[in-house]
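TICKET: design request
STATUS: open
ATTACHED STRUCTURE:
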């Protein structure tokens, strides 16, 4: 990867590349990119853990909720998961659907990683309803629900910083096999448009990530969706929250062997790179591409509304090592105020439907 980056940077007119270019290469280069390599990335033996890897409960609860919407809100039984990873969410979802309903379900998984697509192929033996796609552009005239869990936080972002009253874009160069940062005056029109649209004003010495790729992803999702819902699960901040002094260095970071790495220029192609998403920008851009805002809530609130407490209440085993007790501990970890769910927001949007927030959950 370092040799590729050296050539990439060396061939650029300014001998510098943006952070967005670096992240795109480090994560998605077809040979050297982190997500494209044949190696475990998610789980205890990987570099990071997602909600789906804690327990199958998450996928099962979403399946129950989706079933409710199909029955009561005329949502077609067609589900698309963007970024299916190891396939664990899909497996839990499809098991629950089979337990709940006789209605046939069409399940699409959009996955760019060849390694993860290979893992997902094993699921097709159990669940013929699965259709694997490499990109969202392959999804046409879709009616149903498009779901993603930690998709937008993995998209490439530019980095800008305010210094002595002026705005700069933070660029990346290389010297003696070492990557380094260099700030140049901000001229990128897409970044300037983002700042104007968001009315985001940086404090002096503040650094922030700019998600130009988010708009393109939302356009692709809306372009694929004829009628239905879009559910986005991710961590992020509102424009107001970005102003907090704790955010002055931005949120860009890496995960390598379960360790958080602040300098993402280390281990290029060998670690996950992520940043908190701009929630208000997600909503505003969604409206511009005909994805109407329906609801936003924390993940623990969502799980409670889907009835996860019923799972806890109906099962009890005094043996702390039993599967039931382990399951109950997983439920508690998902709904406790200081648990993993407290970091995630769930954004629900709709297209060519007329639902209201009260329609989303059974009372």
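STATUS: resolved
RESOLUTION: sequence designed for all positions
ATTACHED SEQUENCE:
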């Amino acid at each position: 990867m370092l040799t590729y980056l050296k050539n990439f940077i060396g061939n650029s007119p300014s001998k510098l590349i943006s952070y967005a270019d670096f992240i795109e290469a480090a994560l998605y280069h077809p040979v050297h990119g982190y997500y494209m390599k044949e190696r475990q990335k998610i789980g205890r033996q990987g570099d990071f853990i997602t909600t789906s890897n804690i327990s199958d409960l998450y996928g099962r609860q979403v399946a129950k909720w989706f079933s409710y919407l199909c029955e009561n809100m005329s949502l077609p039984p067609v589900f698309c998961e963007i970024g299916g990873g190891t396939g664990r969410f899909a497996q839990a979802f499809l098991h629950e659907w089979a337990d709940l309903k006789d209605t046939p379900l069409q399940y699409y998984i959009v996955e760019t990683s060849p390694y993860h697509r290979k893992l997902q192929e094993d699921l097709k033996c159990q669940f013929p309803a699965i259709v694997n796609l490499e990109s969202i552009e392959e999804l046409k005239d879709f009616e149903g629900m498009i779901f993603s869990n930690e998709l937008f936080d993995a998209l490439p972002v530019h980095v800008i910083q305010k210094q002595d009253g002026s705005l700069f874009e933070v660029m990346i160069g290389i010297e003696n096999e070492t990557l380094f940062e260099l700030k140049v005056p901000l001229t990128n029109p897409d970044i300037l448009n983002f700042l104007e649209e968001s009315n985001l004003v940086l404090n002096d010495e503040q650094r922030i990530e700019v998600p130009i790729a988010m708009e393109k992803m939302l356009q692709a999702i809306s372009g694929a969706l004829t009628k239905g819902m879009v559910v986005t699960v991710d961590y992020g901040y509102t424009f107001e929250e970005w102003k907090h002094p704790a955010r002055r260095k931005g949120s860009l970071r890496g995960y390598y062997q379960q360790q958080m790495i602040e300098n993402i220029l280390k281990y290029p192609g060998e670690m996950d790179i992520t940043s908190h998403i701009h929630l208000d920008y997600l909503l505003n851009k969604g409206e511009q591409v005909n994805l109407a805002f329906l609801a936003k809530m924390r993940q623990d609130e969502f799980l409670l509304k889907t009835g996860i407490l019923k799972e806890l209440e109906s099962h009890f085993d005094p043996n702390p090592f039993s599967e039931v007790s382990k399951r109950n501990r997983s439920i508690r970890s998902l709904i406790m105020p200081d648990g993993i769910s407290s970091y995630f927001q769930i954004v629900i949007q709709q297209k060519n439907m007329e639902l209201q927030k009260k329609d989303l959950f059974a009372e």
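CLOSING REMARK: The chain has 13 helices and 17 strands. The two ends are 53 Å apart (CA to CA).
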